[in-house]
Amino acid sequence: MTTTFHRHWRDVPESAWRWPNFSPAEIACRGTGKLLINEPALDKLQALRDRLGKPLIVRSAYRSPEHNRAVGGATRSKHLDGAAFDIAMANHDPVAFEAAAREVGFRGFGFYPRSGFIHVDLGPARQWGERFPVRETAFAEETPPAREVLAERRLLVTKP
Ligand SMILES: [Zn+2]
């Protein structure tokens, strides 16, 4: 068996957890605390974390059927198998994230630019949602801070 169910993430013995950058609480159902440990999926999540070298902020991982219904999840959502993860893009470049996720073996991708996360899963290869808009952050250091620009403009206006 590569999946193990726990009625609460607190019941997971320390010896059963081997993904150093994630905790049972982060992966457990946010509505019930239940946890389905899907080992192959967690191995891929850890591989993705290792490849990117930056924290992965998990917005949603395993979902119990009752919580999946409550949040309006798809009836056959891979979250129900513990094989899907919604990862915040606050600290990631979405393009680099997607490439790395594909390299480690994730095949399903859902893009939620307005909510700021990407869904990755181990279901069939497919994708949905609109890609994230290209960010300016890659060149942010070369852009003058907005406040200075404003100050300059005010100066121009108030000068006689
Ligand atoms: Zn998802």
Automatic annotation (TrEMBL):
It comes from the Bacteria. GO terms for biological process: cell wall organization; proteolysis. Residues 21-121 form the Peptidase M15A C-terminal domain. Its cofactor is Zn(2+). Gene3D superfamilies: 3.30.1380.10. GO terms for molecular function: metal ion binding; metallopeptidase activity. Keywords: Cell wall biogenesis/degradation, Hydrolase, Metal-binding, Metalloprotease, Protease, Signal, Zinc. Pathway: Cell wall biogenesis; cell wall polysaccharide biosynthesis. Pfam families: Peptidase_M15_3. Belongs to the peptidase M15 family. This is Murein endopeptidase K. It comes from Halovulum marinum.
